Amino acid sequence: MAIGIQTRKAPARYDLGASKFFGTPTIPEDWAEDFGDDEIFFCQLRLADVAPLDKENRLPQTGYLYVFLHTGDGEYHLRADVRYFDGEPSLALDGFNDAVEGYEKYEDAYLMSFSEVPDTADGTRLFGVPSDWCYGEEPPRLLLQYDPLEGDMGFLDHLDGYLYLFLGEDGADLTQVTLRTEYS
Question: Rounded to whole angstroms, how far apart are CA atoms 105 and 108?
Answer without folding.
Answer: 8
